[in-house]
Structure formats: C-alpha cells, structure tokens
Amino acid sequence: MDELIIAGRSFNSRLMVGTGKFASNEAMVAAMEGSGSEIVTVALRRVDVDNPQDSLLNHIDLKRYLLLPNTSGARNAEEAIRLARIARAAGCEPWIKLEVTPDPYYLLPDPIETLKAAEVLVKEGFIVLPYINADPVLAKHMQEVGTATVMPLGAPIGTNKGLRTRDNIAIIIEQAIVPVVVDAGLGAPSHAAEAMEMGADAVLVNTALAVARDPGAMGAAFKKGVEAGREAYLAGLGKQQDKAEASSPLTGFLRS
Amino acid sequence: MSFKEVIQKYDPMQVIAEIEAMTAADVQRALAAEQLDNRDFMALLSPAAEDFLEEMAQKAHAITLRRFGRTILLYAPIYLSNECHNSCLYCGFSVNNPIPRRTLNLDEIERDARILHDQGFRHILLLTGEAPGKVGNDFIAAAAERIRPLFSSISIEVYPMETEGYKEMVAAGVDGLTIYQETYDPELYQKLHPSGRKRDYNFRLATPERAGEAGLRRIGIGFLLGLGNFRSEAFFAGLHGRYMMHNYWRTLLSVSFPRLRPAEGGFQPPNPVSDRQFVQLMCAMRLLLNDAGLVLSTRENAELRDNLLPLGVTQMSAGSCTAPGGYGEEDSATEQFAIDDDRTPAEIADLLRARGYDPVWKDWDGAFLQKETG
Q1: Cα separation of B369 and B374, whole Å?
Q2: Phi, psi at residue B297, to the nearest 5°?
Q3: Residue B327 phi/psi, 5° resolution?
Q4: Using one digit for the tens of pLDDT, what is the confidence trace for A73-117?
Q5: d(Cα B5, Cα B209) in Å, to the nearest integer?
C-alpha cells in the first residue's frame, strides 16, 4: 500500500488503533499486531507516564509503534494542554492526539476548546492530531492553526454505527490539505473500507477490536478492510448515478 | 428545575402501583426500545419483568461492553473516622451504638493510604461519619492533600456539604463524591433518621446538585437496598441519575446499589432484596443509563460478585476494610458494616483477568485538577 505521510513521517499502515476497553494487555497487543498498525493511541489518564514499568506502556514496543498519547478526559483547552505537556516532559515524542470532550457520556468533542488547545500546542512544537466533529469549517480552522491531521468522527465513540457523518466527511476530504483520519464509530471492516474508498487517508479503530471475540483476528480483518478501501480509491471507483448512462451513447454521432 | 421539584411530582405509592400493574407486553416494548422512557423503566422494574431477566441481562451486557469494553475500575475505601452524631437506625456508626470511637490523625491516614497504594490502588474513597465539630471540612481537605501524591483520583463519601465546602474539596485535590439518598421515600426517611443533621431529607437530596455546581468531576448516587420498596426506590434513583446526566453534563455519574449488611445495632431490613431482584435492578439501571458507571461493593459475596460482573458493573471495591485504621492495625475500631467478599485486591484482579476483564487501577490523572505552575 502507498505510504501515509503525517508531518513528514512515513507509515506503511493506514490503520491506527486505540488501546482502551481491552480485556487484557495481551488482547490489546494481539489486536495491534493483527492490524499491522504503526500508530497506537493511549489515554494519558490511564498511564503513569513517569513510570517506565507502567504495565500498559510496557506492552507497547516503542520501536515498532509510534505512541500517540491522547488527552481524553480533558474538559477544556487548559486541561488538554497540561496533559500534553506532561507527556512531553516524561519523554514522549511531541505527537499528541488532542481530545477535548466535556460531555463524559457521548464524548463529543468541544470544537471551541479543541481549536484553542490546538493553536497553543502547535506553537509549542507539538504535532497535533485533533479529534473533531465532522464539521468541514472547523476542519479548515484546525488546518489553519497548523494541525498535522484532522480526525473527524464517523459516529459517536463506541457506537460501532459506521459513517453516520458521511456527507460532511466527504466535504472534509475534498477540501483537506492535511491527512484526514476518520476516528470513532467505525464498528466493522466494511465501515473502514467505506471511509477509505471515499478517500480518507487513514482510520482509527478501538472499540470494534476491543470487544471482538478475537481482537487479533478482528485487527487483521480491519487491516484488509483498510487496504481494500484504499486500493479501490486509488484504482478509481465508478461513480454512483441515479440515471442510466449508456456505454455507447446514442447521440455520439453528433460530435463527429 | 431542581430534582426536589421533579420528585415532588410523584406519589411513591402511586409509583409502586404503576410498576406492579406493568404487563409482559410492557416489558417487551421496553426491551425493544433504544431509549427508555419512564414507563419503559417502570416495566423493567416490575414483577412482570422477572420472566425476562435473561433478555435484560443480555442487553445490559451488550450495552456495557460497547460503552465500557472489558474493563473494571478498582478502588478502595479509607475510613477516616467513625465519629457520628446521627442516629440512623441501620448504621453501625450510629451515635446510639456503644462502639469505640476513633478518628485517624494524618500520619495514620497516610499509613493506610500507603498500604493501599502498595497494593496497586490509584483510586481512593475517603469516608467519615457526620461529626463536623471533630471531623470537618478542614480535616477532610487536609487528609486529601496529604495523600494526593499517592493517588490519581480521590473521592469522598462524607456528610453533605454546602457548595462552598465542595469547592474547598476540589481545591484540595478531591475529584469525586459519593452520596446515597438511603431512601427516596420521605416518610420512611424520617423514621430511619430520628435525629441529627442527616434528618433533613431535602438537604441530602440536593447534595449531588451542589457538588455538580462546585465542579466535582464524578458523582455517585444510590440508595440502600433493604429499606424501602426496591422497585420504587430504583425508579427514583434512575430519575435522579438521568436528571444529573442532563443538568450536570460535564460530570460523570455512577450509581451504586448497596444491600444492607449486618452491623452493630442489629437492624433488620424491612424489605430485604433477593439476588434475583438485585440482578433485575442492575440490568434495568444499565438499560436506562447506558453510560453511567455501576458500582459493586464488597457488601456482596464473592460468588455473586463474580456472576454479576457481566451484567453492567464498571467499578468494584476490593480488599475493603470499613473500620478507621483497619488496614494498618489488627485491633482497629469497630467497622461500619461487615463486608462479604474478603478476597485480597490481587485475588480480585486475578479473578477479573480469568473472567476476561482488565482490572484498571488508574483511569484518571491528578493533572486534571492542578493549576498551571508556569
């Protein structure tokens, strides 16, 4: 598959995985390995970043995976910025998945606070990957302040409902000048394939792997879904049309 | 509108009658609904729903798995004091019980805290009775500040405070509050609380709202199983939960269903709740409040706790001691109640792993509450 490039760094996989909700660290590692992913996101509130023996971090081979700390749990820009700084001070690379979700139930991102935090963190040298609602104008604002990607949600986190925001994601993809990573709500490999067929640059999956009977096998299934979707996109999908179009136009003779 | 105004619209006896009158068809409609309304919730709490426990359990399991995954947050309580001026008929700490009274000093609190920290806990719950003269806001704040370096999350389960008091707690590093209404039935509440500040039903009822105003990040509500009719109590707890989730939407809600346990004073619960009823209640609550934490304490026995795991539980206490100083001393003061699951935290963690769950010791970070230092 063609490489994904984010902030000048190349990745062979276009599938990112989250590390929450797994039955065990072993199940999480199986999902990561099955998925072929090279980027894994970890909730800073779950780890003791000062402790290299932390059991979650211990299970992630930092030579194989880019650790993408996330700021989940932050309710406003100030808290997200503080968490990002703590991660960097503890020696993490300056990559941060920015999540500002004041509502702890649907975990929908706060657009205003996310933008504020993104602006500050970019200025401080962070490579910022913001989780946002599928709002094309907000995506433009994020790009303008210098985020490395935009990560619109397909559906609310953990719902496994797929691309409920499809029309807006299509606009974001059409207008994007940074990679578009569809994040949240993807519950099946077919959802991931659909996002990639639309032209998304990557997808991020967590719940679908964590709650699968076999997380490793589900990771592998998503890998195939992402690859199939990407290949179809590159191959040039036929357009869907409401009206029939004859392969041999009946009025073609008029052009000659 | 306050929750007091919400609950005053209901007559508890009428609620019980409506729940009792629900039919199998009502239950089936509720099971098919994506979002429950009040009538659906009543149906799931009704005697008619007892024939649908397996369907309820399957649905509760599926929702919990989707929203929380295969994780269980572990926490432990530290009892700071058993001094209490209240005379609650069911409580071992009641002022009328001739038990040795004990309030830990900060060194003793830190000793217990270190024991729990070394066992792996990062979420801690501080408890006291209600004796503001001896154990007031300053004492609790000092305790929280003393142990804050050891834990990522500190919650309190103490007497109700004013909003200002909760703000002081937040400033001291407390992020969570647990407060049970004990019973939502105002008449029964008066009978069970004959004297002391706790006698004020409405002040207690509005406590979660004051805590929400003060910015506490986690609020746990609940009622004591065994006091009133469990069906109507659960209905009002569900209403309360939904009210909190809608009105204090930045605060994470959890709900507990502690069953009364043997305690000093020998109180006999007037409405004991069976295991089947407990399961029905837990599943109904999960179906109503998909995203709320559901807490299971060591009041329940080991076998039941193991079997309840898949039905919606998201948080468990482990290795609990309900007497002040009980972790560090063999002869500690009298406990609040007898626990029924005495497995060690390590044993509970092993059990969770064996059942396909990840025991989570840390799911929060004190950094959320810290002020910028530069």
Answers
A1: 15
A2: -100, 175
A3: -80, -30
A4: 999 999 999 999 988 888 888 999 999 999 888 889 999 999 999
A5: 13
Tell me the catalytic residues of A.
97
Distance, in Å, from the CA atom of B121 to the CA atom of A142, rounded to the nearest integer, reads: 39
| Cα pseudo-dihedral B132, B137, B142, B143, rounded to 10 | 70
Are the CB atoms for A72 and A99 separated by under 8 Å? yes
- Euclidean distance between CA atoms A53 and A59, whole angstroms: 10
- Looking at CA atoms only, how far is residue A230 from chain B in angstroms? 27
Q: Are A169 and A198 in contact (CB under 8 A)?
A: yes
Using a CB-CB distance cutoff of 8 angstroms, which residues of chain B are in contact with residue A23?
Answer: 69-71, 356-358
Contact B244, B208 (CB under 8 A): yes
**Residue B99, phi-psi category: left (phi > 0), alpha (psi -120 to 50), beta (remainder):** beta
Radius of gyration of chain A from its Cα atoms, rounded to whole angstroms: 19
Distance from CA of A13 to the nearest CA of B (A): 25
C-alpha to C-alpha distances, B243 to A95, B6, B136, B236, B294, nearest whole angstrom: 38, 9, 29, 10, 16
CA-based Rg of chain B, rounded to a whole angstrom?
Answer: 20
Question: Could you say which residues from 26 to 85 on chain B have a Cβ atom under 8 Å away from some Cβ of chain A?
Answer: 65-71
Query: The dihedral of CA B288, B290, B291, B294: what is its sign?
Result: positive
**Counting one residue from A and one from B, how many pairs have CB atoms under 8 Å apart?**
77
List the 146-175 stretch of B: residues with Cβ below 8 A of A. 152
pTM, full prediction? 0.84
8 Å CB contact between A232 and A224: no
Can you tell me whether residue B351 is helix, strand or coil?
helix
Residue located via tokens 């792993």: B353
Biggest CA pair distance of chain B: 62
Residue type, A91: G
Paired strand residues for B317: B75
Token code pair at residue B45: 């709490």
| Average pLDDT along chain B, 374 residues, taken 10 residues at a time | 94 95 95 90 97 95 92 94 89 86 93 94 94 91 96 96 96 96 94 92 97 95 95 97 91 92 79 93 96 89 88 89 79 66 88 92 83 45
Residue B187: its H or E element: helix B186-192
Nearest CA-CA distance, residue B3 and chain A, Å? 20
Provide, for chain B, the percentages of residues in helix, strand and coil under a 3-state DSSP scheme, each rounded to the nearest 5.
45, 15, 45
Q: Within its chain, how far is the Cα of A132 from the centroid?
A: 10
Spatial distance between the Cα atoms of B295 and B276, rounded to a whole number of angstroms: 17
DSSP string across B260-272: P---TT----SS-
Residues A156 and A184: beta-carbon distance below 8 Å: yes
Instruction: Say which DSSP state B74 is in.
Output: E
> Cα–Cα distances in Å, from B158 out to A141, A230, B92, B144?
46, 56, 15, 13
Q: Among B291, B360, B368, B371, which would you mutate to test the A interface (most chain A Cβ atoms within 10 Å of its Cβ)?
A: B368
Reported ipTM exceeds the 0.95 cut: no
| Interface test with chain A among B61, B63, B66, B251, by most A beta carbons within 10 Å | B66
Distance CA B170, CA B149 (A): 15
Check: CB of residue A59 under 8 Å from CB of residue A17. no
List of chain B residues whose C-beta atoms are within 8 Å of the C-beta of residue A82: 367-368, 370, 372
